[in-house]
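User: My collaborator sent over this chain with a note saying "see what the structure looks like." That's all I know about it. Can you take a look?
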Amino acid sequence: MGRELHTLPEGNSVWGVTSLDNLLYVLRHKSSQQISVYDTDYYRLQRRINVSKLRGMADMTACAYNYCLYISGFTDKCVHRVALPNVNVTQWPVNDVAEGLSVTDTHSVLVTCREVRKIKEFTTHGRLIRQIELPQDVSPRHAVQLSSGEVTVCRGRIANPVHGVYLVGTDGQVVKSYGGSQGSGSEQMNVPCHIAVDGNGFVFVADYNTSVVTVSSVNLRT
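Assistant: Without extra context I'll predict from the sequence alone. Here is the result:
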């Protein structure tokens, strides 16, 4: 059973949260151009970062190696890179609607492009390394690369009856899946929207409509 550690001050809805060192970065309402920065000891507001030209963002993640934040632009089809601590903001095109973001073990950036069923991998400065095209029936919301090179992908749309998590090979083919029909029962999900993988290989899946986090092993066995 989880427990509430702290409640952030009232404000616009939260669209992205990530941490770097001892700071928590919070992306508020999707039309805002500000990131609120809190300390992780007492959750006191330290500063606000202005990110110009930011519109319709979808996700945010951080890279400790390159010491920067990445924000995906749903509207402008770009990734915005915020170099810290001097807040040097640059952006590079994805050329498709950019949604979920994650950072690989080699410090590259995975961008989930749901509308075209692709996962695109970029360098920290926006050079396209590769892209994985997924099967017709897999519309990804977020993806995380494993140390094996395989990718875990969550799929779920409000209007789609099938929701689940997939283990995908480097060729884009589904190796294994977990989930099925939309719902809140055993082995069911209701718009899984975000994935995290810990150092022990456990996969955490955040479900949008049920407000539940599902935990499974790296081979998608609960």
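A starting point for your reply to your collaborator: The chain has two domains: 12-133, 136-222.
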